[in-house]
């Protein structure tokens, strides 16, 4: 009986795919090839921007591309892969816009932006609905409000950047500050049902290390990993972020609580920059064309809660931002900080001092934190912030011996209690506690010795 049910399901899926086959084909020709971009002529009527093309090349496999612009009667397209084997005059066929059909069976799998498996575990089963990877966010006036606070499982974040379900936070860090380890802690420890992890421009050798060592079987079991490595084309790196958001939206629309971890928004913006410049857009700040700063909110606004009454699901998004040269005011970081609901700063000096995760709690902020703290937790948090801020201001004087104990009671308290607060913030990657337990440990640390 089970075999018959599976056979019937396969037949239905095959019938749906047959129904989607285009019966009319619009053909054109390659006019020129420059880098990973091609100019196409002869398509009448011309398809809109965002549609995919199929270039019939001399290579064993045809090459896919996407229309990214139009100029002088010719279409400008960006290739999914290399331009090797493509030459002027080769035929071009129009396809539909890019779609994915996510399914719950995708949990525990690693896929590329087109939905093909990267883990060698066999083909993926398509879900019942094909979703365009480009989609509009829920209408602002109909969107549900943020849910209750969320246990992230990381004390530094649960205390100083308390998060709510459906919130979007940015993780701002330079390279080598423990960002991947923090992401693995969130993937394993956050109180959500599904995790979608997006790796944009990741080093190829690090994919298995992250999955097997950092994420582990426990984290992977409830996760879908979408990856485009650094050698992928700009279009594939861009589509990794769009595909991951599409998978997260699928589970959100099923009423699930989803954690979306994206590493990194900066590499997504760099891919957009390459596509935009190749299409002839003028460069602006640091070479980024205007379309980059229009595309960022379109992506980030898709995370969050669903429309009111749509099942109660939510996407809690944590998006990493690579700050080049530790410049937290560079264009992408500045734009993302203004879009998201808070920011978490990872500091290299804190990591070099041996405290991990290396979160600079005084520079980190959750805009929704005041609305989800209990009345007894607010004074604990404010006192801890005051103590850490005063200790930071006086640390050099204390180390040099220029401050004499007993001169200022507030400074004496900060010198005594700051190390105890730092001990609470220090956490191994296999530790996991909720918000209430984190505040309890902080309250104990603040008790007079």
UniProtKB/TrEMBL annotation:
All residue ranges annotated as the AAA+ ATPase domain in the record: 165-351
UniProt keyword annotation of ATP-binding present: yes
Keyword Translocase annotated: yes
Primary localisation category: cytoplasm
CDD domains: ATPase_flagellum-secretory_path_III
Catalysed reactions listed for this entry: ATP + H2O + cellular proteinSide 1 = ADP + phosphate + cellular proteinSide 2
Leader peptide range in chain numbering: none
Keywords associated with the record: ATP-binding, Cytoplasm, Nucleotide-binding, Protein transport, Translocase, Transport
Location of the protein in the cell: Cytoplasm
Protein's name in the database: FliI/YscN family ATPase
Organism: Roseomonas elaeocarpi
């Amino acid at each position: 009986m089970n075999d018959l049910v599976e056979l019937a399901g396969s037949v239905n899926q095959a019938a749906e795919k047959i129904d989607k086959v285009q019966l009319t084909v619009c053909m054109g020709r390659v006019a020129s090839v420059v880098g990973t971009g091609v100019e196409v002529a002869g398509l009448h009527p011309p398809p809109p921007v965002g549609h995919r093309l199929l270039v019939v090349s001399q290579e064993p496999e045809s090459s896919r591309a996407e229309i990214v612009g139009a100029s002088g009667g010719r279409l400008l397209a960006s290739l999914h892969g290399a331009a090797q084997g493509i030459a002027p005059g080769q035929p071009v066929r129009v396809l539909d816009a890019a779609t994915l059909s996510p399914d719950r069976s995708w949990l525990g799998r690693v896929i590329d932006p087109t939905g093909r498996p990267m883990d060698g575990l066999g083909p993926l089963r398509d879900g019942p609905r094909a979703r365009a990877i480009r989609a509009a966010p829920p209408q602002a006036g109909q969107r549900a409000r943020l849910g209750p606070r969320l246990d992230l499982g990381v004390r530094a974040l649960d205390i100083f950047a308390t998060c709510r379900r459906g919130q979007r936070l940015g993780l701002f860090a330079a390279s080598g500050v423990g960002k991947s380890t923090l992401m693995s802690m969130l993937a394993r420890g956050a109180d959500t049902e599904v995790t979608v992890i997006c790796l944009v421009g990741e080093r190829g050798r690090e994919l298995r290390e992250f999955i097997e060592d950092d994420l582990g079987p426990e984290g992977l079991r409830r996760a879908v990993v979408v990856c485009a490595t650094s050698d992928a084309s700009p279009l594939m790196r861009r589509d990794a972020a769009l595909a991951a958001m599409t998978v997260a939206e699928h589970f959100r629309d099923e009423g699930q609580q989803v954690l979306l971890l994206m590493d990194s928004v900066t590499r997504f913006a760099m891919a957009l920059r390459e596509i935009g410049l190749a299409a002839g857009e003028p460069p602006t700040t640091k070479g980024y064309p205007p379309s980059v700063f229009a595309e960022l909110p379109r992506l980030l606004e898709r995370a969050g809660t669903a429309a009111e009454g749509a099942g109660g699901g939510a996407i809690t998004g944590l998006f990493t931002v690579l700050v080049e040269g530790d410049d937290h005011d560079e264009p992408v970081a500045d734009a993302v900080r203004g879009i998201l609901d808070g920011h978490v700063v990872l500091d290299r000096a804190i990591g070099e001092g041996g405290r991990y995760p290396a979160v600079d709690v005084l520079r980190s902020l959750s805009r929704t934190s005041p609305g989800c703290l209990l009345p007894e937790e607010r004074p604990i948090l404010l006192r801890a912030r005051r103590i850490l801020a005063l200790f930071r201001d006086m640390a050099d004087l204390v180390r040099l011996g220029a401050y004499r104990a007993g001169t200022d009671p507030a400074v004496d308290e900060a010198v005594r209690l700051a190390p105890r607060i730092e001990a609470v913030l220090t956490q191994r990657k296999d530790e996991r506690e909720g918000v209430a337990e984190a505040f309890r440990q902080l309250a104990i640390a603040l008790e007079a010795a």
